[in-house]
Amino acid sequence: MDLQLPKSEYPRVVIVGGGFGGIELAKRLKNKPFQVVMLDKHNYHTFQPLLYQVATGGLEADSIAFPLRKIFKGQKNLIFRVTKVTEVNAAENCLQTDIGRINYDYLVIATGSTSNFFGNKEIEANAMPMKSIPEALDLRSLILQNFEKSLIEKDVHKKSALLNFVVVGGGPTGVETSGAIAELKKHVIPNDYPEMDFSKVNIYLIENSPELLGVMSPQAQKKAKDFLTDMGVQIMNETRVLGYDGHTLTLQDKAPILSSTVIWSAGVKGQVLAGLDKAEVVRGGRLKTDTQNLVVGYQNVYAIGDVAAIIDEETPNGHPGVAPAAIQQGHHLAKNLINIKENKPLEKFKYFDKGSMATVGRNKAVVDIGKIRFQGVFAWFTWMFVHLMTLVGFRNKIIVFVNWVWSYFSYDRGTRLIIRTFAKDRSVDYRDEVPAVKEEVKVS
Amino acid sequence: MDLQLPKSEYPRVVIVGGGFGGIELAKRLKNKPFQVVMLDKHNYHTFQPLLYQVATGGLEADSIAFPLRKIFKGQKNLIFRVTKVTEVNAAENCLQTDIGRINYDYLVIATGSTSNFFGNKEIEANAMPMKSIPEALDLRSLILQNFEKSLIEKDVHKKSALLNFVVVGGGPTGVETSGAIAELKKHVIPNDYPEMDFSKVNIYLIENSPELLGVMSPQAQKKAKDFLTDMGVQIMNETRVLGYDGHTLTLQDKAPILSSTVIWSAGVKGQVLAGLDKAEVVRGGRLKTDTQNLVVGYQNVYAIGDVAAIIDEETPNGHPGVAPAAIQQGHHLAKNLINIKENKPLEKFKYFDKGSMATVGRNKAVVDIGKIRFQGVFAWFTWMFVHLMTLVGFRNKIIVFVNWVWSYFSYDRGTRLIIRTFAKDRSVDYRDEVPAVKEEVKVS
User: Fold this and answer.
1) Of A54, B17, B140, B183, which residue has the fewest beta carbons closer than 10 angstroms?
2) From the list A4, A191, A426, which residue is nearest B429 (CB)?
């Protein structure tokens, strides 16, 4: 059954995903001769770089998310629908969604990435991912529930598992998350849990490769390691995780770790839509595209952002899965779609690397911008400034700023609420994010 | 099995419930010769008067809740546990909880109230209550999901049901909620849903009795009615709700209303604990107490706040179920417990009525303070000031203030996120608020 959408004389661009890339593209097509249809399974945009602060009680979920409808307020050529795309039917230029079939003239896949468990079903079932707001809130609940449970647990092994927090993956997310848990341990636990022997709280950061922050400069890598070590995080480099059954984390050639909280930030993969079987999926589950973001094998299907890999001589592995790359690709694709409409020649995508940064804790961050590298307090303020500026929405900027100022002076983290009670037995229900209600309205 | 708690030479006061009354009592016992054990099923205190703003996208959940552990920071004679009390065994001076048995010398029931469906199971299963953070977030999600669904619904009856919002109960909560939905309709829908014919959005406020705000002055009642009518709320006084199957609201002697969103604010009842079968439960499901808040029939079991009814010649129906009454009873009981310890005579509780107020919308509120009655802009600022001052936590005050200032100037409501996808089929799982995980930690 076709989804009814307002009619338009212009070609229809369907964008799947309201992340950085999708939003940039849609906004750049404002007042242009296209009908833009934006689809997302949520009604909001998620500012993923700050999810870890939601998960560790530093920020409220609502301050790092922004209603998608509000982003496109006043954009007359845009239609937004909350839905999940179930399949692409490229032969017929249409999408199947859970609210009906949608035809397109141009399809843009901007679905981003999801946690990559590298095929390990046991880890996938038991470790905590942190790629969406509901997942971050579940993790926050789990951390707090485990603190509460540790107080009443008599068995020493079980108690130890409840107080061992393991972060797997030493990229920016893993570094930031383990640092944030270390700050919870230092500043919040002694106040909140005076009965707890907080020397028993252990934070492990496990990374397969010899260094943390693989993409950054050696200076940044070393400094991040020093910062984390000072904060009490136990860094385990060159350590391979074999399995996790919800209680015991098994490692290659090393003793297992008992833990009730394993946070998985060891990798991501593109969220490829079903039905695109002709497309080449390259390393990291990304769709291979040409330098115009056209998916290889298709005429009118594009991919941008984390789900796309522009494979070229200069970029044999595509571009990094970061917000600036997605935004630049969205911007660039908008220009090219307009070029197509105006029969102008297409331009090749050029990535402008804005650098990379990671925060470790209070007054501690590392920044690489081209050849410029700095760490410490100034890096931390730079990190905060850049994130505040990138955050969508003026209200959100203020709320996040207030929270940061508050935390800075009080050493506190304000949002320690268990509002989505996390229960592993019901994880499927709890993690399900798609509006699943099928209501029959009886007419009397 | 007994719950292990730190030993103490002092008598143990167990307080069940971290609402206004329980917190006040616990704080007043700081540095006094008692061991205070506070139990709550949540790890946070909920500021119930602002739940309706969470449900209608005006405030984030985290800004009206406050971690209970933080409230009692530094109070050495207090132990807090997240748990659900399953039964009172007064003969043995102990409580059964889902984390073990707890003995008490004095038991204080401060469990507050819950929605009263007056025995109608059909309404209970289908209408939306709004007495806790998870319920308010579920309601927010339902309202937003119904807006989204209305866009794709082709059947006119179903579409109409999705856009008919019914609030049952014309007390302060019902007045405030229907007013907030009317503001969503006026300021948010036209921007967010340009495709929607928002003249089809109807808001009904249904009340059994001839007036709204039964406890307030005739001036306040009339003005609230005028305000709501101006804002487009359809007020139906002297209307009795018979049933609601999730789709059709059946009324006595009136045509039924098709609605997918029925919000229940028609009454509350005390959350009486199981096992107190000797106690007299009076109207509204409250525990009958004497003027020292001692539950009738017991020697060392007290009740304060919404769950308590001090039945006396002067107060044949007890005191109103409002925050000031709970706080005053908590304060008073603390004094009496100390009096008992010091063998001093006990004092009788005297209620000081601080007045009542309700907000209807922007610049519109009604206030009664004794003989002083005013309505309109100044009443609205008074309402906001009083609520900001009563809100627990400095961070929360700032965040709520920022949100209100933001909404005032932007006519916007910032937190329109569907973060707890609401599905009626799974309502039991989703509404369950008790930490339900029973994990077995395998020791390798």
Assistant:
1) B183
2) A426
Handedness of CA B333, B334, B336, B340 (dihedral sign): positive
A12-115+268-341 and A119-266, same CATH topology: yes
CATH class of B12-41+83-115+268-341: alpha beta
CATH T-level fold of A12-115+268-341: FAD/NAD(P)-binding domain (3.50.50)
Q: Which helix (H) or strand (E) holds B286?
A: strand B286-289
Choose the closest CB to B415 out of A62, A149, A162.
Answer: A62
Please tell me the CATH code under which domain B121-266+362-428 is placed: 3.50.50.100
Domains of chain A, by residue range, sit at: 12-115+268-341, 119-266
Q: DSSP letter string over A137-183?
A: HHHHHHHHHHHHHHHH--SHHHHHHHHEEEEE--SHHHHHHHHHHHH
Ramachandran category for residue A347: left, alpha or beta (phi over 0 → left; psi -120 to 50 → alpha): beta
Tell me the residue type at B179. Answer: G
Nearest to B76 by CA among A197, A414, A188, A195: A195
Hey, what amino acid is at B365? Answer: A
| CA distance readout (Å), B412 to B100, B105, B188 | 47, 51, 6
Nearest to B13 by CA among B30, B4, B3: B30
Query: What is the nearest CA distance from B269 to chain A, expressed in angstroms?
Result: 23
Q: Residue A37 in contact with residue A11, Cβ under 8 Å?
A: no
Tell me which chain B residue has its CA closest to the CA of residue A432.
B421
How far is the first Cα of chain A from the last one, in angstroms, to the nearest whole number? 26
What's chain A's length in residues?
Answer: 444
Q: Residue A415 contacts by C-beta under 8 Å, 6 or more apart in sequence? A: A54, A57, A58, A59, A60, A140, A403, B62
Q: How far is A94 from chain B (nearest CA, A)?
A: 18
Nearest to A311 by CA among A292, A326, A297: A292
Tens of pLDDT, residues B259-313: 999 999 999 999 999 998 777 899 889 999 999 999 999 999 999 999 999 999 8
Q: Closest chain A residue to B68 measured between Cα atoms?
A: A192
pLDDT tens digits, one per residue of B24-63: 999 999 999 999 999 999 999 999 999 999 999 999 999 9
pLDDT over 60 at A46, yes or no? yes
- Note whether A198 and A188 are within 8 A (CB): no
Q: Taking the mean position of all CA atoms in its chain, how far away is CA B314?
A: 26
Strands B113-115 and A85-89: unpaired
Task: Report yes or no: B1 at the A interface, CB cutoff 8 Å.
Answer: no
- Which residue from A minimizes the CA distance to B396? A414
Comparing CB atoms, the residue among B162, B399, B429 nearest residue A402 is B399
Q: Does the structural domain A119-266 have CATH classification 3.50.50.100? A: yes
| Contact call for residues A298 and A306 (beta carbons, < 8 A) | no
Q: Does B191 touch chain A (CB under 8 A)?
A: yes
